[in-house]
Specification:
single chain, mainly alpha, 10 helices
Length: 241
Amino acid sequence: MEKQKEIIRKMTTVLKVRSLLMKQCLAECLGTLIHTMLSCGAVAQFTLSYGTHKEFLTVTIAGGFAVALGILVTSKVSGAHLNPAVTFALCLLASEPWLKFPLFFLAQTLGAFLGSGIMFGLYYDALWHYGNKQLTVIGANSTAGIFATYPHEHLSAVNGIFDQAIGTAALILCILIIVDPLNNSVRTGLEAFTIGFVVLLIGWSMGSNSQYSLNPARDIGPRLFTAIAGWGTETFTYVLL
């Protein structure tokens, strides 16, 4: 046992990250990975289950808890932004230095990319079976929507932009109120679940148009992954139509 502890101590010394900013970026990457992995997994079950798990309620609940878990894992290190929109708002309010915005954005996008990759590996056989040996972006058996958000056919570009702007603004406003020490404070440790509940409510009330991404990194990372993994550049061109 002592030998094992000594090995762990040596590994800790060698692998220790001394830069605080690097620690925060790694935390953002990990938290977004957890959030993306669990939320993609919920959508995968919803899509690939052929009706046995086909309840939108399960997706929204899983999405809310996925955010809460990501926050719990990283809040003590980086503040658990997990979302470039959150980082941008905090920089704009002078709560964080602007240097963090591009670095956190990259870390969050990488985390989302890796999280979607893990779920792709987990559901690899199911994806090919459901799509009849094809990976498609649109159509009856499309699967790209498991990883990134795509608008419904009725949604215009203007309405889509408004949809995402309102949803993201609602999320940011609620987060700022929840963490504001001058407001009615949420008990320590419950902030993560309160924010997760906000995401759940936004999903219930604003999720039907285009799946309420609310998070550029959560959308861009998986979209990049799907473009590389076999869905092709249509993952981006479809969005621009």
